[in-house]
Amino acid sequence: MNTLTVAAATPVTAVNRDYRLADNLEAVRGQVFLTGTQALVRLPLMQAALDRAAGLNTGGFISGYRGSPLGAYDQQLWKVKPVLDANRIRFLPAVNEELGATAVLGSQQVERDEDRTVDGVFAIWYGKGPGVDRAGDALRHGNAYGASPHGGVLAVIGDDHGCVSSSMPHQSDFTLQAWSLPVLNPASVAE
Fold this sequence. Notes:
This protein is an alpha/beta fold. The protein is about 35% helix and about 15% strand. The protein has helices at about 25, 35-55, 70-80, 80-85, 95-105, 130-135, 135-145, 175-180; strands at about 60-65, 90, 120-125, 150-155.
């Protein structure tokens, strides 16, 4: 199955013995088991399906820095490249967070192109704390510019509070708030 179709959730009352590992991307009913990284892979596929159901001809774009605490995200995206391609979602890893954020900002200007082939582009940018600092200009200006009428951007920040892969600890939510970017900070699996 190369495309995801959105359907109403079906309550699960018993164990699904037919569950397959691929269901983390393909299941449209019942309970889906996935990791946080798999949820980030599934999210643009769900957006593509919702847009198709609404009669929109959209594309997706994902960019960010591979060295972030979300480092396994790019590996999962490459694994499902045929599924992304079938859903018109392009993954383009960046050399640094700033270039990725700038590319995502550009994806929201599609309506200005007379030769465009899509109604809009939904995008995901990902990076870590020091990358938020580096990409600040693009993130702040992108927020001020706004999203395409049939697009939108989700910035996923993997802060490295313990300096496991960074030179300094980071907490980006205050910086993002100062730039007037909306912040969602889930504290549990349910959130």
